[in-house]
Amino acid sequence: MLLQFSSAQGPEECCIAVEKTLNYFLTVTEQRQVDVIILEQEPSRYGLKSVLVSLKGAEAKAIAQQWSGTVQWQCTSTLRPKHKRKNWFIGIAYFDPPQEIQDTEILFETMRANGPGGQHVNKTSSAVRATHIATGISVKIQSQRIQHANKKLAKQLIAWHLTHYLSQQQASFNNQRHLAHHRVIRGNATHCFYGREFLPITK
């Protein structure tokens, strides 16, 4: 299952809300034994503009459907204390898994992972760069220590980007991920939080 958290081009307060929502979501999914892997994230100055995650587990689909919609954060701005606005909205969109791509359609390269992770992540060539031969779409995955697992995630991410690419080329249907950035309904939120501690509001 794929979930996209988006600030919907809102101000930095919405980006902070995206990061706080993601952290809360990771706690919830861990309790329900659902594995969450961050495939892509776009940082902002104070938070995250958007995050794309993959869910795996018996309750993955149920959780994805439960969280799909609008998240409301009620809090005085930590960046602009005198700002009158106290409600910040972000969107969470659920997407069905893209159609699987065959290995013959992709060029795989292995390399040593870099960045956080210490010695474990750099000892072996576990990172994978995957390039879709026909379109040139390329991604790099290093979130897992096992090369096979990174290869599987890279294929999923390539398929995601390919769906987006084809929708733009064919112009026969609107791309769901793009629209999700603009379709935040301000009201009737599926989840509400308040305060700097980002505490949930029970409906």
UniProtKB/TrEMBL annotation:
GO molecular function, one term: translation release factor activity
Superkingdom field: Bacteria
Domain Prokaryotic-type class I peptide chain release factors: 112-128
Pfam families: RF-1
Family that this chain belongs to: Belongs to the prokaryotic/mitochondrial release factor family.
Protein name as annotated: Probable peptide chain release factor
Organism: Proteus mirabilis (strain HI4320)
Taxonomic classification: Bacteria, Pseudomonadati, Pseudomonadota, Gammaproteobacteria, Enterobacterales
